[in-house]
Known about the structure:
It is built from eleven helices and 19 strands. It has helices spanning 74-78, 92-104, 138-142, 145-151, 217-226, 263-275, 297-305, 381-397, 404-413, 433-450, 465-473; strands at 2-8, 49-51, 58-59, 69-71, 84-89, 108-113, 117-120, 159-164, 178-183, 200-201, 241-246, 249-253, 256-261, 280-283, 309-313, 332-337, 355-358, 362-365, 371-374.
Amino acid sequence: MGVYDVTLRQDIDPPFGAFSLPHWAQGQEVRARDISKDRNWARLSYGVRIGRPLPAAHRCFPDDPASDAIDASKDERAASLHRQIRIGGSDPHAVADAIKTLSSKGLITEIRPVQAQVFQRSPSKDPAAAVSGKPGSWALEAVDADVALATMPGDPDIRVAVLDSGISRDHKEFRGKVSGGYDFVTLGAEDWSHPGMGTLIGDIRHRDSNWDDDGGHGSHVAGTIGALGLDMPVGAAGLCSLMAYRVLGTAIENGSKVGVGTPGDIDAAVKEATDRGAHVINLSLGLGASSGLAPHARVIRYARMRNVVTVAASGNHGTSSPVYPGAVPGVITVGAIDPFGRVTAFSGWGPHLDITAPGSSIYSADLDNGYRFRDGTSHAAPFVSATAALIISLGRARRVTFKESTIRRLIRDSAQVEGRPTDPRRGAGVLNMARALKAAGELIDDHRRAREDPEPPWPFGFGPKEFAASNMRS
C-alpha cells in the first residue's frame, strides 16, 4: 500500500480542514470517502482513501486520539496542521495519480512517503547489564543535580512526556510516576524497507493505550528523568511526573536492538502530548532530512506555541550534519560528554547544538525490572528535560510561568564552559542544573524588584497572561 503524508496549500473543507476527515493511522482501515462528490478542488480515483494523520485538539471523545474532530483550534490553524492529510490505498497507481492530480493543481506544499526508518542506534556496544546497586552517580554529580533538587525537588503536576520505545509498566522505579500515555506505533511488515536489517519484534501494528516498552531504550531514558531511585540514581526531575508515548517499535539489527518508526507517528505523539498538557517533551531520537525537507517542523511549532519545551538528542553520528527534530529551530538540542568531561566521539554537533550533558556509561532502568548502562546522546537529552521540568516547577511554586524560549536561554546561559569556549562540539557548554535553577530564581527576583506590583504576569521572560493567571488560581 502506498501511503503519503501531504500538506496542502489551502483549506480543503473550511473551516475544519483536514480535521474534518476521519483519523487514519497506518495499518488501520478508514471509511472510504470519494471527495470528488463534495470538493471540487480535486478528483481522486475510487478506492483512494484520505484521512488526518494527527490527533485533533477538539474531538468527540476526548480520551481517544483517533476520535472524530469537532473543530480545528486556533493554534492548529496557525501551525498549518489543519492542512495535513494522509493519502493511501490498495492500488499504488491510483494513489500516485491522486498525488499527481493534487500537485498539478498546485495544491501540495509538502509530500512525504510513510515508511519505517531507523531513529535510534547505539553508538557502540553497550556494557553488560547490571542488576543491583546504584552505580552511575557520576552523571548527576557532573550536572550538580543534587544541589538543583535541594533547591526544587520537583512538582508532580509538572509532566515530562517521553516519546520513545515506551516505558516498562511493571518496573519498580516507575510506580506512581507515569500519568498516562499512548502507543502510536503503527508499523507493519510492508513498511519495513531495510532488507537485511533484521526483523521487527513486539507490538507494531495498531495504536492503542498499551505504552509498554519492547526495546528498553525508552525505559532507560525515562529512568534518568523520573526514577524513584530505588536501585539506581534518583531521576533528575525529582517529583515531576512522566507521560509515556510509544513512538518507536523495535527491530533486531546484527544482534542489537534498534528503534524503528515513522516521522508521522512521532508527529502524532508530539501533537497528543501537547494537547494532553505535557510541559516538556523529550525526543531521544533523530533522523536526517530527506529531499531537503525538515521533518517535525510544523508540529514542533505547534508545541512551542502552546508553551511546551522540546528537547532532543543531537545524534550519534559524530559529525555536524543536522538530525531532526534536534535541528528544528527552538528545540533544545543536546550532545554528550563522558565521565571525564570530554565530548564523546559519537556526539553530533553543529550550529543547532545547544548544550552537552552526560551521555556515556549512563546507568538507568531496563526491561524485566532490571538496569543497565547505555551510551548515546539519547541518554544526555533527559538531563536537560529534567532541568526544564524543575525550572517550570520553580516557576509554579512562585506563581510564575516561564516562556519556553526563556527556559532554553536559562539552560544555555548557565552552562559550564571548560577548555576552549568556542568549541562547536560543546554548544554553550556542559549542563549545570543548579546554575540553571539559580538563574531562574534570580530572573523572578529581578522582575519583582523592577515592578511595584508584586503579582504576575511579568514582562519579558515569562509566559502569557493567561498562563500566569491560571497558576495564581491553582
